[in-house]
Design a protein that fits this description.
Layout: H1 7-19, H2 32-36, H3 40-46, E1 55-58, H4 66-69, E2 74-77, H5 87-93, H6 98-109
Parallel strand pairs: 1-2
Length: 111
């Protein structure tokens, strides 16, 4: 799951995972506030309770994503403040790359 510009990275990772036989879907989460206003049936359709293998990708911060990835999920994103560099370098430093998303997903599903 991602909230914006990370979604293209999520889609690319999902394509690789699906090609490897790991059933994957991408969830666009542009607004936690709007999501929380939805009824329980809608929330269940987006995040089925039966699916505990979840991950988030967020360029800004991993803070808050734990409520959606759950105890077994993985969060990829910035875990500190004050980094300044070209975007390409920051994405690498914080692991916000397709191969890292694929690796985290494989770890979550035990493959």
């Amino acid at each position: 799951m991602g909230s914006g510009s990370e979604l293209s990275l999520c889609v690319e990772a999902a394509d690789k995972l699906n090609a490897a036989g790991i059933k994957t879907r991408v969830v666009s989460m542009p607004s936690w506030e709007l999501f929380e206003q939805q009824d329980a049936a809608y929330k269940e359709s987006v995040f089925p309770a039966s699916v505990s293998a979840r991950g988030s990708v967020e360029m800004a911060s991993t803070f808050g994503w734990e409520r959606y990835v759950g105890l077994k999920g993985k969060m990829i994103g910035m875990r500190s403040f004050g980094a300044s560099a070209p975007l390409k370098d920051l994405l690498k430093k914080f692991g916000i790359q397709v191969d890292n998303v694929v690796a985290a997903a494989k770890e979550v599903v035990g493959k």
